[in-house]
Predict the 3D structure of the following.
Amino acid sequence: MTKTNQPFTPDWVSSPGDTIADVLEERDWTQAELAERLGYSIKHISLLINGKAPINEETALKLERVLGSTAAFWLRYEAQYRAALARKEEENRLKEWTSWLDNLPVKELMNQGVIPNCRLIAKNKPGVVKSLLHFFGVASPDEWRSCYAGMEVSFRRTRKEQSDVGAISAWLRLGEIEAEKLDCPKYSKPKFEKAVREIRTLTLLSPEEFEPKIQHLCREAGVVLVLVQSIKRAHVSGVARWLNPHKALIQLSLYGKTNDRFWFNFFHEAAHILLHNKENIFLDEWDNGESLESEQEQEANQWARKFLIPPEYERELTQLQSKNDVINFAERISIHPAIVVGRLQHDHLIDPSWMNSFKVSLYFQGEEVE
């Protein structure tokens, strides 16, 4: 026997009216006689039998007295019938909405375990639509367009081809879900400034050590930091946004998978929280693709550069020639050597292939290492 996880959903739906009709037939009553006994019009009885008029509390009590059983039975039967009708209507709507799936990274969300994995064939698509509506927390694709596709007007991007709103919205929603699990006090700029200064000292720690510390320090200042695995079509390495006027979110994807990029991305997003308004959603890509250098992005970049390696050390930075130079310099300014190497490479002071042994690769738990 072939097993299936699909529940049995018959095409037919039995209504209380069917039972009323059966009782009339057993008693050899006409609808007119029942109408007289119940104190209703013949038209209303016809609507009851055809399932077009609902059974309310008054009608249930009358049916109890005239036909038997209990009012609770008739009300429960009515509720089950209406729920079954709603399910049938829902199934039809879900079928009509399957084209919405073309806008979303469905297979990737399946691979990440966000929604149940299945073959994307016609009979399965309505179920996938239902799972995605639940994931986004919206009633229909129209509400998704309003809540998520409509967010595009607030996007501030760093690359022109970052245009897959479906993939971006899925990645943003993953961050929202993680953030919803975490309580934090109202945002305090002085507390976050202090937290960011302390977080800079954590660059010397291993990922296992710094991750819980950085999240705690941010949360105490009213900023939630979440790490969410990247979605290819989103091309997003990080985002800074406000979930509400009192709660900020920094979301990182570990795009690039090395600690120098992680730390620059974090402080870049922190700069957006500290410097810029609460209406925009700052989507950031590390590199690859034509850059869109807005004034706000330039400010965030400069803030992160200067915060990681203060300007008074820049002249000395240009003189670094060896690994020992990098180690000594990094120790003197209390920062991880990988960050120094990343800066040297970015500023074309050394070849991109040099000194990469200082860098630490970062991975999500369970992620396959390439």
Observations:
- The first helix runs from residue 16 to 27.
- The beta strands are 155-156, 223-227, 238-244, 247-252, 281-284.
- Residues 1-10 have pLDDT under 50 and may be disordered.
- The first strand starts at residue 155 and ends at 156.
